Amino acid sequence: MHFDGGLKLSIAQHSSAGQKAVNEDSLGIRVPEDQQITTKGAVAVIADGVSAAEAGKEAAETCVTSFLSDYYSTPDSWSVKRSAQQILNALNRWLYGRGQHYLQAEKGYVSTLSIAIFKSQTAHLFHVGDSRIYRLRDGFLEQLTRDHAMPIGRGRSYLTRAMGLDINLDVDYRAVDVAINDIFLLTTDGIHDVLSSSRMQALISECAGDLQAASQLLIEGALAAGSDDNLSCQLLLVDALPLEDAGDVYRKLTALSFPPLLSAGMVVDGLVIEEEIHASPRSQLYKVFDATANCHYVMKTPSANFNDDPAYIERFILESWIGRRIQSDYVIDVIEPPNAPSCLYYLSAYSPGLTLRQWMTKNQKPATKSMLDIIVPVAKGLQAMHRRDTYHQDIKPDNILVGDDGGIKIIDFGSCYVAGLAEIAVPIERDRVLGTAQYSAPEHVLGRRSSSKADQFSLAVIVFEMLTGQQPYQGRLQNCTTTAAFSRLEYVSACHYNPHVPLWLDATLSRALSISPELRYNDVSEFVYDLEHPNPEFMKNEFQPLFTRNPLRTWQAISLFLLVCLLWSLQR
Hints:
By secondary structure, this protein is α+β, with helices and mostly antiparallel strands. The model is unreliable at 1-5 (pLDDT under 50).
């Protein structure tokens, strides 16, 4: 998905041992020339191996080379923050482990580390130690990081935080906006300990845009000011930002025309249309046959109602992008077309069977095991999506396939939220597709931040409906559009509709269906585990008096008994 005009940076970096015999600083910059400049961004990394550590130089080099390599190997769907933190935590554990060969951890593999990742119109900053990141804008040099160091007198200090210093890593993270002509400066303490911000700003301005000359001048200036440490700096000038022109984005989005309304017997790029499977105001699904591969696929085409709507088109294109990146036996496969598409559509695997909605119509109030045979695979499919920082946001019976072979597949990526793509700005208002009201989590309806707990809520709604034949909250979810409306909802036990539902299972559902996401399970796997294995905490309810467990049923029983007594007395 490369919809932008491209992020463009001018870069320069320089490093010197200075007065020391060995240079323990390390630095590196990577600016991809392919699609990764959009999905992952450009990265600048600077590290300063701790002089008191015997392996400081190796630690700094490892930090720089490993991060630059590993960051671009993380999934495109991950957010910058998740990608960086995963790498940094693993890298820190490795450095700390290697450092255990020394009597003291601070004598081993210890280094400062500062990282600037430029993605779309944002700079994501990660920092630990006393190297620094600055931004020069409109003649003012602003320090964007804070030193993790404690002064101990006579101009000396010791690091309170660094890579490899402790098994638990605490990294500062900050996201700042980026503007054209911004200059980002990364330095080690050999420079900024002896040069003030105003002096560095003056030296950079003196070079009038020649970044390489500026980097050398900063080092020469620091040496002249008496620096006795290694000296390193990086300069990155923002020449251009992506997505400046909405018209250009629209032209790229509409490069492929919408296909015509298709019917049986028509051929599109060698694919024979056999039948229409489903049609809605937003799209059409067709069963197609590829004679070359002797295989059936499902073709999804956009609705002609939106042929001039760039937000809709972007959303449609993203569906196939998302589907190709989710690898799971429980999520429908998106297939690369056998020939270059002549119009806008995408293909997915054809899986004969029923939707869960159709299955539920035929199997009302199924046994717990039959329910789990479907719900557990769906949960595994959701976990595969969540590992990719992707949330489905429209989990409902119509979007789950129960195959003739017993296989379970999640379908339809039309409402998905992808953290990595959400960070990419576009000059159009993005199409925010709400899920189906009666299955959507309250936070989704209210337009709040997405999380995996929203999918957990939707899955719990399905379980409740499968076991009871009713919607939770007496079917009132679909009518709620405000915080106040959701706060007035009251959970009615699944046991009220189906006395065969165990109380521990109902307690599991009650937690997953909490209106507040903070009260739900931390992960969908925990929810499913409690569905399969009675939670001891919930089992306590099994031994509570009937009045405590189900007061409504208790009063109904009492009322019936009194009515029988009254009728009996009238007959005497």
